[in-house]
From TrEMBL:
UniProt KW Signal keyword: yes
Organism: Lacticaseibacillus paracasei (strain ATCC 334 / BCRC 17002 / CCUG 31169 / CIP 107868 / KCTC 3260 / NRRL B-441) (Lactobacillus paracasei)
Protein name: Lipoprotein
Alphabetical keyword list: Signal
Bias (Polar residues) ranges: 175-195
Amino acid sequence: MLKKMVIFGLLALTMAGCGSPSATDKPESTSSVEIASKYYHQLDKKEQSMVFFTFKAVADDSQDGGKYIVDMKVRNGTKSQLKFDLSKFILSTSNTGTPIKSVKHGDLTIAPMRTKTVTGLFDSATAANFNGVGEFCYLSRDFLLAYSYGADKTAGATTDNLKVASLIVQNKATTQKPSESAVNTQSQAATSAPDSETSQQTSQASTQPTTQQSQASSESVRIVNSAEQAMQIAAPFLNTTVNALRATPVDDGWQVGPKMTYADVIVHYNGRVFSPANPATGQPDHWLN
């Protein structure tokens, strides 16, 4: 009898051990944290500052007109999966110029802490876009990624150049629009003047454009302080590079033009660019920005 009781006890203990799984036998959890996916314009300012752009321009001799292609490298330093609509990248030249649009389509997706490169994002830029005023943007200037100056150099143009004072000045000068108050003041003065006075003003404007330019320029804050800045501002309007220009001090600014030809413009201290009348072509006096 005692022997049977021992046997039954051992069987009971064995069955109990098999029925209770150990901690190591528990199945592993299959749940994972889902990474948020956001388009660049949906990021807040702090997150946007964690995304780093590099734009590198390369001469494309297979095209006529000295064209460049531009490659873009993006490093996503955020915790979100970052997305871009590739067709929404633009290269702006001024507030009056037509921006160069991306030739790519579809979405670009970059995982957190990863880098991706897009080859040939733009294919119709010229050297002038990298030697003067220009901005790489996403959707609009509200999402400024980098200034285009120096993109054709070895290091390219990066997000870091948004902190360079001289680039800030020259781009602000050509992208800001005249204030409505200034426009309204000029309009009121023109409509309130007597006919004889208006005729006299028109005559003076045609014979002394420099005086009129100086008056308009002196109303704004001086932001252009060197011939170098003046040439950088004028280069896109003259469709050439800074190295091909010369600058001569004149009243309230600089007279800037190509070294070998006469096609000058006046760059005022406030950043506005004036093109004098050209009798050969019949082109009247006019502002370029």
